[in-house]
Design a protein that fits this description.
five-stranded antiparallel β-sheet, three-stranded antiparallel β-sheet, 11 strands
């Protein structure tokens, strides 16, 4: 903030649907390189609790502008329902993005998508989650980044304990050895961290929780 403002520059990323890539062209040299596409929604969430009106720029416990590549094909997203109807909203299409989104943007694109939305009754979660055939993932969105990481891992310990039957301390110890963490973005007012564990490291899911994980919206 003490230095001069960055110059205004625009990069265009031609997309080749045949090879499923975008091309980066340097502005100050002749260098170019292909980038594999991974389309996802940077912004996906529900209305916050308590009747609050929040800016969609700020990710939080209701989701929002998480800029998480996990919000993509092949993954199920879970959100708490805080108000009647949940008020799910989606936008901010990305074709690809590096961890951290350090310059403030991904490869920004329009997306055409089909959603399947389900209500899971009798379950409760506090923060967004993702799941696929191989792994379960939890989101922490806060500042500083160490608090975002604490939230993500606390939620993951609770998920393993509730659905897979390990005690909290056993889950804590196991994740210390096989858990993974990724910084999704660090340019919004809250940082976003996604913690994950591959299902191959977990016991069989408890019969009482078979099917979708505790959540309210898929």
């Amino acid at each position: 903030m003490l230095g001069p403002a960055l110059p205004e520059k625009v990069w265009y990323y031609p997309i080749d649907h045949t090879t499923n890539t975008a091309t980066f062209h340097a502005l100050d040299s002749k260098f170019s390189v292909s980038i594999p596409l991974h389309p996802f929604f940077g912004c996906i969430g529900v209305a916050p609790a308590g009747g609050e009106a929040r800016s969609s720029i700020v990710p939080a416990e209701f989701g929002g502008n998480m800029d998480s590549p996990e919000a993509s094909v092949g993954n199920t997203a879970y959100f708490p329902v805080n108000v009647p109807g949940a008020l799910l909203y989606v936008g901010d299409g990305h074709a690809a993005m590096g961890d951290g989104e350090i310059a403030g943007t991904a490869i920004e694109v329009p997306l055409r998508t089909r959603f399947q939305v389900s209500i899971i009754k009798g379950q409760k979660i506090s923060w967004p989650r993702f799941e696929n055939e191989d792994a379960i993932m939890t989101v922490g969105a806060y500042r500083p980044v160490d608090d975002a990481l604490r939230i993500a891992y606390t939620e993951l310990v609770a998920w393993v304990h509730h659905d897979y039957g390990l005690s909290e301390m056993d889950a804590y110890e196991l994740l210390t050895k096989v858990g993974r963490v990724r910084l999704s973005e660090m340019v919004d007012p809250n940082y976003v961290v996604v913690a994950s564990v591959e299902k191959k490291y977990l016991p069989a899911k408890r019969p009482s929780t078979a099917g979708p994980a505790p959540a309210s919206t898929r």
